[in-house]
UniProtKB/TrEMBL annotation:
It comes from Yarrowia lipolytica (strain CLIB 122 / E 150) (Yeast). This is YALI0F21263p. WD repeats lie at residues 21-62, 107-142. The lineage of its organism: Eukaryota, Fungi, Dikarya, Ascomycota, Saccharomycotina. SMART domains: WD40. It is found in: Nucleus. InterPro entries: Swd2/WDR82, WD40/YVTN_repeat-like_dom_sf, WD40_repeat_CS, WD40_repeat_dom_sf, WD40_rpt. One of its GO terms (cellular component) is Set1C/COMPASS complex.
Length: 340
């Protein structure tokens, strides 16, 4: 897969290039790329973890977590190791080597389901958020929790692109607090009031790679982009068909929206089976709404994607429902997507 210069016009040509089915027709609940963009990993309700070559669009290997379940599989800075959350038995976070399918470490402390997991972009630091209303900080080199925030409700979490701070979006208080990683235990250095989420509430929070914006995805008819420095609402992303929050929130902590690598574009899943492209440099209307610059068509007869990921090193997307689909610019898609 060749490197393609990032541009909004190239993003608008993305097409499905390969579809892979390795979760036994069960829902995929999380999707992640490694730092190099060479690999992707998924976890699903079939209690399996699947590793893929993003460059080749091929399946590499399977791992199973039948006793504990698997969700929120996230690469560490080693492409052959991940962390993931349990879905049954206990609420432990597991650190797994994909090379030999052996556990490196366990992170114990949460008293309820872990619904968000985030690895620092620059270090071996891990953030987790749980239905026990806590956010915990971990060091991958130690099994002991490095710090705990006791909050009033479940929260969404995200590191900034430099790994110096992290955001905690409180869904009940409708605010976003920014904390310094180096001053863990201190009060947030900034707190922004958030607009009320439309539909069934917030789905995820993400910083753009240039650090300018924070994206708050929802289950409603608007996603919100705010200024990361002032907290001001800059864009109301509209024009998509909202996804429905699943009854058991089995995809909680996963995202159906994502920034492009350059931070100019936002991609989002739409219930009509399309991938929506918003260009943040387009003009918003008098009500602050930004309409799509393009709607990308999924493969014929494909299910509507429910989660989405952006390759950090190339012009590639991945989407998933019960199958994983890689997307490439049109010039790199020589034939209809093949299924495995």
């Amino acid at each position: 897969m060749e490197s393609v210069p990032a541009s909004i016009e190239t993003y608008k040509t993305l097409k499905p290039s390969k579809t892979l089915r390795y979760h036994h027709n069960d829902p995929i609940t999380s999707l992640d790329f490694d730092d190099t963009g060479a690999y992707a990993v998924t976890a699903g309700t079939d209690e399996s973890i699947q590793l893929y070559s993003a460059h080749k669009g091929t399946h590499q290997r399977s791992s199973y977590s039948k006793k504990y379940g698997a969700h929120l599989a996230r690469f560490t800075h080693n492409s052959m190791s991940i962390v993931y959350a349990s879905t049954k038995e206990d609420d432990t976070i597991r650190y797994l080597s994909l090379h030999d399918n052996s556990y490196i470490r366990y992170f114990r402390g949460h008293k309820d389901k872990v619904h968000a997991l985030n690895v620092s972009p620059i270090s071996d630091v891990l953030l987790s958020a749980s239905m026990d209303h806590t956010v915990r900080l971990w060091d991958l080199r130690s099994p002991h929790c490095q710090g705990v925030l006791n909050l009033v409700s479940p929260n969404l979490i995200a590191f900034d692109p430099r790994g110096l701070c992290f955001g905690v979006a409180n869904t009940s208080a409708q605010d976003l607090s920014l904390y310094s990683v180096s001053a863990w235990g201190s009060d947030p250095f900034a707190t922004f009031a958030l607009p009320a989420p439309p539909g069934d509430g917030w789905a995820s929070v993400e910083f753009s790679n240039d650090g300018k914006y924070i994206l708050l995805a929802t289950y409603g008819e608007q996603h919100h982009v705010i200024d990361a420095f002032t907290g001001n609402l800059t864009h109301k992303l509209v024009g998509h068909h909202p996804l429905r929050r699943d009854q058991d929130n089995m995809r909680g902590g996963s995202t159906h929206t994502a920034f492009s690598v350059d931070g100019r574009t936002v991609f989002g899943c739409s219930r009509d089976g399309k991938i929506i492209v918003w260009d943040l440099q387009d003009r918003v209307d008098e009500r602050g709404r930004l309409y799509p610059s393009k709607a990308l068509n999924c493969a014929p007869n494909a299910a509507s994607p429910q989660i989405l990921g952006v390759n950090p090193a190339s012009m590639q997307l991945a989407t998933a429902d019960k199958e994983l689909t890689f997307w490439l610019p049109e010039k790199d898609v020589a034939e209809p997507p093949k299924e495995a």
